[in-house]
Write a structure and sequence with these properties.
single chain, 222 residues, alpha/beta, Rossmann fold, 2 domains, two-stranded antiparallel ribbon
Length: 222
Amino acid sequence: MKLHGAQIQAVLFDLDGTLVDSAPDLIVAMQRLRAEQGEPHVDTASIGEVVSKGGRAMLRRGFPDADEARIETLLPRFLDLYFEAIATHTRTYPGVDEILEALEAQGVRWGVVTNKPGWLARALLAALALDARCAALVCGDCLAQKKPDPEPILHACALAGVNATRSVYVGDDMRDIEAGRRAGTMTIAAGWGYLNGEDPQDWHADAVVVAPHELLSVLGLG
């Protein structure tokens, strides 16, 4: 589905798995946590598949024998370890920098709506020198609601001074598409993200994009 660039005021992105590939640093943090807990080194690459599901989902992969009470106990330390080296290996996905530059050149604002806690999201964007360029950042602890509730996206539109119906939300999880649809934005499923075996075609987004470089064409901004 081709979206019309002349109508677009803003493009909002999910963060992990859409704008940036943060799995490598999260995997390192998980290995450090396992070592602290006296657990043997194991292949925790599978946690990369569920990064978009949040810290608890990652811990369930990293500590498959842990009950929910232990998961809650481990979560703060996991996040602290991640924060200590939050952008050692994390990078924007190939093609994303060019997309952001093209949006800026054409006067289209861009922002981030993520369920990631603010202290982590702000640190990550700053480390990647994206914070000053971002027209709106709405994190998981900014409001009482999180995605798939539409309020975070509506709040981002208000911060950016744009109309939701003339904005696009891009994400790699079904709740991203649900949130965008409920907020009234156009929606694009990021087929390059942390899909965990899901087929983004099933999410009923306005468009599914396999690689970031295809976004500009789909948006009609190429």
